[in-house]
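Long-time lurker. I teach an intro course on protein structure, and each term I like to show students one example going from raw sequence to a predicted 3D structure in token notation. This year I'd like something fresh instead of my usual example. Would anyone be willing to generate the tokens for the chain below so I can use it in lecture? Attribution to the forum is fine with me.
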Amino acid sequence: MKKLKYIILASSTVLLLGSCKKFLDVNQNPNQPTASTPELVLPNALVATAGSMVTFNDYGSWQVGMSANAGGFGGFGNQLTYNYDQNSYNGLWTTSYDNLYDYQYIINETEGEDKYSYFNAAAKIMKALVYQRLVDEYNDVPYSEALQGVDNTAPAYDDAEAIYLDLYNTLDDALATINNAVEPIGFTNVLVKSDVMFDGDINKWKQLANTLKLKLLIRASGTGVFNGVTPSFDPAGFLTADAIVNPGYTKADGKQNPMWSTYHSTAASAQVQTGRSRITTIFAVAFYNGNKLSDPQRAKAIYRGATNPARNQLGITDDNVPFAPSNGPVWYSGNGSTYSFSEDPTTAVGILKGRHAGMPVMLAAESYFLQAEGRMKGIISSGPTVEELFDDGIEASFTYLYKNANGVVAANPLNLTDPAGDAAAYQADNAASYLANIDLALTDAQRLEAIITQKWIALNFIHGHEAWAEFRRTGYPTIVIGSNVATENFASVLTVATTPDKLPGRVLYPASEYQMNTENVPSGITVFGSYVFWDRRN
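-- Reply from a regular --
Happy to contribute to a lecture. Here you go:
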């Protein structure tokens, strides 16, 4: 039961990735939910979540110093000034609510049904993931009255802090549902056929729920949201492997890996100009080329040109701005030299691994860095040390980047085959820096800086929105406010922001909300004066 306004907006959003939403779409008429089943809706919903990660990443990467405008491209407008209006980044809103309706349908159809207990829990876990992303960009959003379709087309907005607390409880409910599940004979683990992320591995679903609970606790740790809550986690622990969605991406229109089809090439092997319009930043490359840290191996995995890719400072538009390579995007290292349309899934590693590669919903590296901060703050009371978790996070980042489209580390043209060894070498090469060796940090502030900086590096152009959220929360990686030196500050040179750091506070609610939910949408929201409740700048 998807509201008409979301359907209309979905068709007009540039990076909405609607083709991914329709990859396995069986709920064509959401006002007649009996036409489908949870078995069919869940894979579609998971694919939609994975596809929307491209929209969120693209948005976040502009904000947090991962992406800049390339030479030869114009029309970026408010992406360079941050002067966002009600039509800016609407895809964050529309994709999320469209996706949430699918998860809510599953929850409604499976509540109290033993044979569908795992479906019910999985939908609740993913609902929590998608809603947290929404709150992290918009603060107050429709929640308790939302997702009712025609029964309530103008839902009230809930307080962001209350939503966070309820999401935590929802994840506890999902864990309890899993642990109390009783499956009828002959219906054993039916989830396997529909689960395009964990292949029915219930333990991994529990780990994801734990990791999302930890993220909620950490992101709100500077507020009073969880005062009186004693953190608790299921014995399954936290994610130790990347959460990857892959329904069988293939070389066909609307069925390729969404990162590949957005930044590399179409199913007809036509170059996608979006990939060439975005190059990396001088600020970002400083974490690879020795200016801040030396990291040649991960640079080789990510960038065409390794530690010397085409790069720019956001907002510079003169004739000296470098172009992306003429035969492909800067984000594709491929076989090390050429733009390849190869069907061979072992051709590429890094970020754009191939048409067939799965889409990460959460990286193991992010999980480890969350655990490291949780351990440091006492949210996690036992288990591996901060230092061990920090080192695991770095190694997990190398491992993800070294995997090919088949999801394995194997021989490749760039000879990136030893993530553990290269991670250890990376820390040795930066032996004097606490940003790479947290045991050198002398204070909790330095330890937090190291954790968030390494998380930023691990999320680089994969989940830019998460890095942007963490920067707003912590101020890391460190920038020199007001500096015009591109290695010190990632703020656009064309910024019109009135905030002290010359960066935006948030995006605005879509114009549709002001038109169709006028009485409920919060008033007085501004790009440069309004913040999410956990933002340090409040």
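Some talking points for your students: The chain has one domain: 4-240+354-492+501-516. The first strand starts at residue 68 and ends at 69.
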